[in-house]
Amino acid sequence: MKHNAYCSLQQRIHPDAALLETTRQLMRQEAADRRRRFNRSLGIGTAACTVAVLLGVVAPWLAQPQVQSQLLAHPDGITSAQTESKLERPDISININEITGVQSVSIDQKLAFPENALTKELTQEEAIRYLGRDVRPQKLPVDLKQEENDAYLFVELPDGSVVYDQFTFWFREDSEEEYNPLCRQLTLTASKTGLVSDCVYLYPQAYQKSYIGDVEIKLGHQEVEYGPYDEQTHAPAGTYDRYVAELTVDGVECELVADNFTQQEFIDALISMVSTQSTPTP
To answer: Which pairing describes strands 215-226 and 92-98: parallel, antiparallel, or unpaired?
Structure first.
């Protein structure tokens, strides 16, 4: 399977702050209404629901003995841990924030490239050379393979000013199915001029930062529902774990989104990414 890296994208995104805040409030209200409907259908009280949510947050950490973590209590849906890596590096501090929702930005908020913009399709080697380093994680689960991209879109003006330099690297386990919510996959998006996206992950206001060495990371976790949904109770068929990280390494802005990873696998991928030598692939 081949996937173009945003080859059809011809617009940049300028999010509307007021629209984002309004949508954030609506999503929170919708989520609260949905929880109430779901609890009533099962006859569960608010207290029992709260206990279940707390157990759902803490359980993933307790289920993975290979990571020694001291859990800290934080408000606003934050699960924090001071994590000792397998390398016993004291400069690693991991704080995982529970993502509160996802905002999709309307296509109407995108602006077209200037008429005199020059579009190029780079190879993967050219894209990595432009970034100045290979940002791909060097440690991933063995069953994940990188999907082939036909080209990496690069747009600049005649004076050399870069308009668009967002490259996507996609890793996925071997599967014949076009869509499988339980498929293990990781998407890495990288840019030197700044990431743009039509998908914004919403974090608690008082989110905690993570650090690997001197690299600051915004790290989040989301339990994603998948269908089909029960017509009576509206309960999903199941859920899977999604981990999201936003960081800047050697001037390259990156976002990682991993589905069906364990916490340890995701942290290992981050460590291997940050620790990679700052030289591009020849």
So the answer is: parallel
- HEC readout, the chain: CECCECCCCCEEECCCHHHHHHHHHHHHHHHHHHHHHHHHHHCCCHHHHHHHHHHHHHHHHHCCCCCEEEEEECCCCEEEEEEECCCCCCCEEEEEEECCEEEECCHHHEEECCCCCEEEEECHHHHHHHHCCCCCCCCCCCCEEECECCCEEEEECCCCCEEECCEEEEEEECCCCCCCCCCCEEEEEEECCCCCCCEEEECCCCCCCEEECCEEEEEEEEEEEECCCCCCCCCCCEEEEEEEEEEEECCEEEEEEEECCCHHHHHHHHHHHHCCCCCCCC
Contact present, 132 and 250 (Cβ < 8 Å): yes
pLDDT for 206 equals 86
Selection from 100, 147, 144 nearest residue 265 by Cα: 144
Give the C-alpha separation, 149 to 3, whole Å.
5
Sorted by where each begins, the domain ranges of the chain are 11-274
| 63-84 tens-digit pLDDT | 332 333 333 333 333 344 433 3
At 23-38, the pLDDT tens digits run 555 555 554 554 444 4
